[in-house]
Design goal:
Blueprint (H helix, E strand, L loop, with lengths): L7 H70 L25 E4 L10 E7 L4 E2 L5 H11 L7 H15 L12 H5 L25 H4 L5 H4 E2 L7 E2 L5 H6 L5 H13 L5 H4 L5 H7 L3 E2 L5 E8 L5 H8 L12 E8 L8 E10 L18
Helix pairs in contact: 2-3
Length: 370
């Protein structure tokens, strides 16, 4: 009897084994591909991070270099001018004061700076000094913020009393004032200063009612706590400071900015060329011609508007600020001598610039003779 052997079963088993091996190989290839892709992504990310770190480090070094050059500019200003130094003259041939260029205009430094950076320096003689402001001037400022002639006398006195209690040397509460009891009763209580020397400009917001009074004001642009100046120099004044000064409105402020681009304001007679007599009476108690040794120095990367954006803005705005930057690296320094480095009082890597826009008035609308 013949015995028949079947070859079908072993063949099927071998095919199944080959299929399993193929699947394993394919899955292995997929996993390796994923791993390689992930590793390649990490390598690429690491390379980009290194590149960006190099770029940031280079930019930071360049910014610090420009900042130190600006500090040197302030030191050079303390030196006697060379005999052969060229001076800037007005159209009438009068010599302009070089220290008045520290009014926030973009500076070209004596030590050539990088074209990629903008330097603006603000003399604090162009700001209102909170630590030296007379009580009467503070009252005038409060009245203007509350509407001028329409200001509520009782509201003015309440704010003035709160200011007095904060800056006096005792804990005695004045009429409608605010002392320890009031401030400690707040949700997050604190003690009043009881000292005429504020530590920061922002401290004024802790005084009862003053946060509302100065809502929307760039405090660092309008005020200072450094130096001994009791007046504001209009050659150096920021827009924000002038907006708070009694006797000045928007039209007068823009004309002052335009006037000082052409010549210096050296006395009240020249102020009167722009400011009417009745306004000058209010303003006189606030203004002077002193400079200071305290400066806010801003340095930032240039970011000019492109032509397309400028054309679009020209269709909707009468006056365009070609410099769109609003925040910059800032330090407040005191330059005492050309033989010593400036003393640094404050550093803010994201300081808010004062309004850097050019005068918002057309030449045909000047209030002075051009």
């Amino acid at each position: 009897m013949r015995q028949v052997f079947s070859k079908t079963a072993p063949t099927k088993k071998l095919s199944a084994e080959k299929g399993s091996v193929l699947i394993i190989v394919l899955w292995t290839a997929v996993l390796l591909t994923v791993l390689v892709t992930a590793m390649a992504g990490k390598v690429r990310l690491s390379a980009q991070t290194v590149l960006h770190n190099q770029e940031v480090s280079a930019t930071w070094a360049e910014l610090m270099g420009t900042l130190h050059q600006a500090e040197m500019e302030l030191m050079l200003e303390m030196m006697a001018a060379p005999v052969d130094q060229e001076v800037e003259l007005t159209d009438e041939g009068e010599v302009r004061n070089p220290r008045f260029r520290f009014n926030g205009q973009p500076l070209a430094l004596h030590y050539p700076q990088s074209e990629d950076f903008v330097v603006r320096v603000y003399d604090h003689a162009g700001k209102i000094n909170l630590n030296r402001i007379p009580r009467r001037n503070m009252q005038m400022l409060i009245e203007k913020r509350l509407g001028g002639l329409d200001a509520d006398p009782e509201a003015v006195q309440d704010l003035l009393s709160a200011w007095t209690d904060w800056t006096d040397l005792n804990d005695l509460e004045g009429l409608n004032g605010a002392e320890e009891e009031y401030y400690q009763s707040l949700e997050q209580g604190y003690a009043p200063r009881n000292n005429p020397e504020l530590d920061t400009v922002e401290e004024v917001l802790h005084i009862r009612g003053f946060a509302d009074l100065f809502e929307g004001v760039n405090l660092d642009a309008a005020f200072t706590i450094y130096g001994n100046n009791r007046t504001v120099n209009l050659n150096l004044a920021t827009r924000e400071a002038m907006e708070l000064l009694p006797g000045l409105d928007e039209e007068l402020i823009e004309n002052i900015l335009a006037f000082r681009e052409q010549e210096d304001i050296d006395n009240r007679t020249e102020v009167a060329e722009v400011v009417p007599f009745e306004n000058l009476q209010e303003l006189s108690a606030w203004i002077g011609t002193n400079t200071s040794q305290i400066y806010s120095v801003f340095v930032y990367s240039r970011a000019d508007l492109d032509e397309e954006t400028l054309l679009a803005l020209e269709e909707t705005q009468d006056f365009i600020n070609p410099d769109p930057v609003t925040q910059a690296y800032m330090e407040i320094v005191e330059a005492r001598s050309h033989t010593a480095l400036p003393r640094i009082y404050k550093i803010d890597p994201y300081g808010y610039l004062p309004d850097t826009g050019p005068p918002r008035v057309h030449p045909e609308d000047f209030l002075f003779d051009d």
